[in-house]
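Agenda item 2: glycine complex prediction
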Amino acid sequence: MDNVIQINNEGEHAYDIIFSDSFKELKKEILKFNIEKKRICIVTDSNVSKLYANEVMSLVDMNCKQCTVVQFHAGELSKRQETVNKIYDVLVKKKFDRKDLLIALGGGVVGDITGFVAATYMRGIDYIQVPTTLLSQVDSSIGGKTGIDFKDHKNIIGAFKMPKLVYINLSTLKTLTEREFNAGMGEVIKYGLIMADDFYHYLNKNIAKIKSHDLHTLSNVVYMCCRLKKIIVEDDPYEKNVRKILNFGHTFGHAIEKCKGFEYLHGECVSLGMVAAAYISYKIGQIDLSTFNSIKNTLASFGLPITVSGISSNEILREILNDKKMHSGQITFIVLKRIGKVNFYKVNFHNMPEDEKELLINAIETITVQDDAQ
Ligand code: GLY
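Presented output:
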């Protein structure tokens, strides 16, 4: 395993992903950006700040013009304009200009918000991703998707803004709760299902090692995911076509996230969504029943939910109809052709044939259970 993967997007949009088992090399990497004349703002949340903010600050503080830390309350509910405004306030007060630098230190929410501030403050300022959760290391820190939620709509406001560097300190995975770690595995398993059957089999063979957080195995897992994401985001940086496959399970997943009031983590909802999408794949004859069951077993083996209680199929269906990916009454679901290969399955919500509606309802019912049945 190399300790660097280059994302070769065009021109100034190229960047490196650095892999390390500490923050030691972060200083050397940041110094490459000639920070002596720059102000730096480290954006983090209330959980991560306690663990790593001082260490990261100490690496840059003496070498840049000024270093500030901004933190907000951890969790999806902070992914809103108010948090963005709080960061803008600090940047304005501290006289940040376009040549300065932001550092996103944390998980997916921190990365998405910081990237969004970076895309919009003074029409664009550089930022670096320092992801500290499994989910952000394997997915959200790479590829420049940034954004916030608005009213009831998840990620509806956003921009593409490529980071200047992604620095992955794998040892931060040690401080994750089991639940958060498992949620990250949802996105990890997704890569295997949509584009790499060998990786899917590797995950299944190494369940015990992954669950015991064996650093060597985890390094391989994170590295492999980043290699797979590289292929996609180089080919289609702005999600015009192939990048859409990364949304496997996400149409159902986002709907559940919303219906459960963000009580479930994103990766947990993606797990549920992948079960529903795999069910459609099975019912339309793309995968067989044993493959469908093995997908459920794999997700469950990694501690991920495959059923959810307390919400009805109709609520989920209503949320799906609100999905931002709906175009002219049509949603394209990503389904599996086999393990490691996907197909697109279009559903037209205007004049939907009865059998298609039934398929969708059945897919949702596969993952919803009545409270008293639990
Ligand atoms: N998280 C999906 C993507 O980056 O496209």
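Discussion summary: The radius of gyration is 20 Å.
Owner for follow-up: CH.
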